[in-house]
User: What shape does this take?
Amino acid sequence: MIRNMKPADIPAVMEIWLNTNIKAHVFIASDYWRKNYGLTKAMMSDADIYVYEREGSIYGFVGLMKDYIAGIFVDEAYQGSGIGKSLLDYVKQQKDELVLHVYEKNKGAVRFYLREGFVKEEAGVEEENQETEYRMRWKKDELREKSGI
Assistant: This one.
């Protein structure tokens, strides 16, 4: 089930956030993520966060700031099981357009977003860690045009 995050969910969400970032971004020092832990936790109240919950446990979440996907995170043990796609489909139902940034070296995430209808708009270098990232966009109307709907 996908639902709005509750304050009691924050410890589980932050654990998934930290562990997933460290594993997915081996090209960035793990201290970078640990250093940003407190800031990210504080910013939770500025985002719409939806968690994927099953039998009382949280397996993943998506953070949305207006039309910007701040991230989709799935517990490592459950990656590849459709949870990330379910979370993305959930926010696609709410928006006509979505934007996100993804590191070029995070090839699995890039493939995922391309498969889910996102297009690369531009590449740039993130100032803080000097890593190349793509700005990607999904538009509901473009999907309709491609599918003939």
Summary: The mean pLDDT is 90. The helical segments are 10-24, 30-35, 37-43, 83-92, 107-115, 140-147. Residues 2-147 form a domain with the Aminopeptidase fold (CATH 3.40.630.30).
